[in-house]
Write a structure and sequence with these properties.
The structure is a homodimer. The first copy, chain A, is α/β, with parallel strands linked by helices. The first copy, chain A, is about 50% helix and about 15% strand. The interface of A and B includes residues 12 and 242 of A.
């Protein structure tokens, strides 16, 4: 048994949890910078809740609500400028993966004299500004990971950096903030969370400890399958989805993601397909490719999920997302090439290379 | 779903794990204070390993190897004096629960102007000296908890304090350090670890997250039952025991312990019975008392353990420890009274009071 676990974020999980813990915000200083996107913070009610709380606790604040989906580095620079002008003591990231990941990048660049692009090649010398993360989707798990995924135009892809300083200090995980999501987003993000768990579980880097979290997340996801089919998301189901997303975060913190994420990035970058949707496309192909290498794990996972084989599970996934994208031969080649620049392809149980990844793309997006 | 998880310790689990991570020691300063007991650090080989490593990393060190079993406050004061004289930058606690718990108390008193007795009533204002914990028994889980249990002569019992500052910065968990333990100690401590998991699982404070750790620990313990019967502790079994102890630590960090620990303290304090042994005596009585309140949990646990009922499981436990202690009526009254001063008795699923605790003592130590 060999593993390393480091996850210093204080996780506070439950309905209305920020209100019971207002005093914790004060520990980080007198001025908060709220980082969020155009809509999720607002529609979910989380932004209003946080502002009400900050007022009550007499903490001043400023709001940067320009985070774009899959934030490009230029968007991060804009946030850093804003943060430096406002001189905040700590950051509150509210939203899906994009605002929380942006918060991590801005928090790092606030205290380290680096350009956004340097985040991918430099270790942080100074601790980031403290971050409080409040997810409003149940997918990313970013509230408990050190990862931040950003879009890099120069490299035509998404790229992630990570630092021990990028773990949020506190994650307030309140599933009621997902109530306002369109069903399509609830499902896309739920599939992203599942994919984190599954990619981690099958990863070459998986270990006794990470598998506990991955299987626990898969187990929580399995309780939501009927709800997904019926578009019937009760508060209990939303709790399970949030928990599965959080477990996925713990799992990938230990193992990283896998080929599916590497393949999905281009679908998001070039085709503007949501992250969860993009991952979902490749789950079946990935499972089929690896089945003979990790037959027991595949079997165990399907049993937990309640599907008789990969095909049946894939049908469930694909029937719950829009699946209309097609790629040309040239696009497939380019995307596979880009996927091969991502380190996480090395986590595949059965080795992959460019031609294998091309095949996986073809299998899905050409209907072969 | 409601819970709070905070466990900031970096856990590095595996054989020879300190040697692969020598550089981490340097992050904490130039001089280490090693805190250990008379024998466990030495016999296990851990002390020699740590000293060799510190030399290699050019970190100077001093050794306080006077930690007594169930360390009394006077013993802590002695350690604090030594630490202040030596002016160390960080502490390395090596041993079973006693040295690691002593390390937490000494680390706290080094940076806070308090008397040892104040630890039970005052929050720490200043961060403790950083602690690296290296367990040499698989029982306490102290390497990942904020708890420190000390003997208090004035109160004629053991008492625990906890602080967010008392989490070790790093836990190096290497099960090979348990190879040199007498079988009796291996078993006593294994039962302590099990008891942590079980007391947490059945606790009123248990929750979705703590139950994951508690059941995982019980599951790991269940793989060691034949080995315990046969006194056949392979390296794989030692890994499972260490993992179960670590899981128990995670579980009780969230929920605290329960009645069993409250009852065991007097057996250790007055009768010099080891902590694990003391707990083991009361497992059966505790399970029987609570069975009707938590029937499903009891059933699930027995199923994981592979026993058909509480009686059969209790027989297994008691046949593997020396069980020769008897108590007078007066002792039973006094111990039950002392147990009632411990907060953890409130974690019992079915409410307990002094007379119920007296009955539990009688059931076990008078053979009723």
């Amino acid at each position: 048994m060999d593993f390393t676990l480091f996850m210093p974020t204080k996780v506070i999980f439950g309905k209305q949890c920020i209100f019971e813990n207002g005093h914790l915000f004060k520990e980080f200083g007198k001025k908060a910078l709220i980082i969020t996107g155009k809509s999720s913070g607002k529609k979910s009610g989380a932004l209003d809740d946080v502002i009400a709380l900050l007022k009550k606790e007499e903490i001043s604040y400023c709001v940067f609500d320009h985070v774009m989906n899959n934030p490009p580095l230029e968007n991060i620079s804009e946030g850093v400028l804003f943060a430096k002008k406002e001189k905040a003591d700590f950051i509150i990231g509210i939203g899906g993966g994009s605002p929380i990941d942006a918060a991590k990048a801005i928090a790092a660049l606030y205290t380290n004299e680096l350009q956004p692009m340097d985040l991918f090649s430099h270790s942080l010398k100074n601790a980031s500004l403290p971050i409080i993360a409040i997810p409003t989707t149940a997918g990313t798990g970013s509230e408990v990971t050190p990862y931040s995924v950003l879009s890099v135009r120069e490299l035509k892809t998404k790229k992630s950096f990570s630092s021990p300083y990028s773990f949020p200090k506190i994650a307030f995980i309140d599933s009621t903030y997902t109530r306002s999501l369109p069903d399509e987003v609830t499902i896309d993000t739920a599939f992203d969370a599942f994919s984190h768990c599954m990619e981690s579980y099958l990863s070459l880097k998986s270990n006794h400890q990470s598998e506990l979290f991955a299987l626990e997340g898969i187990n929580a996801f399995s309780k939501c399958i009927s709800a997904i089919k019926n578009r019937d998301f009760t508060d209990d189901i939303r709790d399970y989805l949030m928990y599965s997303s959080y477990m996925g975060g713990l799992a990938i913190t230990m193992t990283g993601t896998n080929v599916i994420h590497a393949m999905g990035y281009s679908m998001t970058y070039f085709k503007n397909i949501s992250h969860g949707h993009a991952n979902t496309l490749f789950v079946g192909a990935f499972l089929r490719y690896n089945q003979s290498t990790v037959p027991e794990k595949t079997e165990k996972m399907l049993a937990i999920l309640g599907f008789k084989d990969i095909m049946q599970f894939e049908r469930f996934l694909l029937s719950n997302i829009k699946n209309e994208v097609t790629l040309s031969e040239e696009e497939i080649r380019e995307y596979a090439q880009l996927a091969c620049t991502q380190k996480n392809i090395n986590n595949s149980p059965k080795k992959v290379d460019q031609s294998i990844i091309e095949n996986m793309y073809s299998e899905v997006v050409k209907g072969v």
